[in-house]
Amino acid sequence: WKRPSSAYGYCQATNGTWKAYKNSTDSTFVSRDNFTDAIDFIGWYIDIAHKKLGINKSDAYHLYLAYHEGIINYRQETYKKKKWLMILAIISIFAIRLMKITLEVFQLFS
């Protein structure tokens, strides 16, 4: 059995977090199904994680964990009991770096 989640859309934001985003940004007509709105939400969440948890905005590893776990659970270090999540965070960072390098190589030869 898995706990049901209200997360959906491009950003996979839960209802409560999405509501907090809408309230704090006065964004009445945003949608989790809109890619631009989802990107803005992620930027907002990174800023919140930085302010509430002290995570550097360039620390992709800990930002990934905070985004997955939520602010409260990250503070309680619940991710430390999820080795699979910590590994996934590392793999995701390396995948992004590889994509960036690949793009740079393609740009050199195009």
Shape: globular
Work out the number of β strands: 0
Strand-residue proportion:
under 5%
Q: Spans with pLDDT under 50 lasting ≥5 residues?
A: none
Biggest sheet details: none
Describe the secondary-structure layout.
Elements: H1 15-25, H2 35-53, H3 60-69, H4 71-75, H5 83-108
What are its keywords?
110 residues, globular, 5 helices, mainly alpha
Structure report:
With 110 residues, the chain is mainly α. Helices cover 65% and strands 0% of the residues. It has helices at residues 15-25, 35-53, 60-69, 71-75, 83-108. The protein is globular. The model has no long low-confidence stretch (mean pLDDT 94).
Could you write a compact summary of the structure shown?
The chain has 110 residues and is an all-alpha fold. The protein has helices spanning 15-25, 35-53, 60-69, 71-75, 83-108.
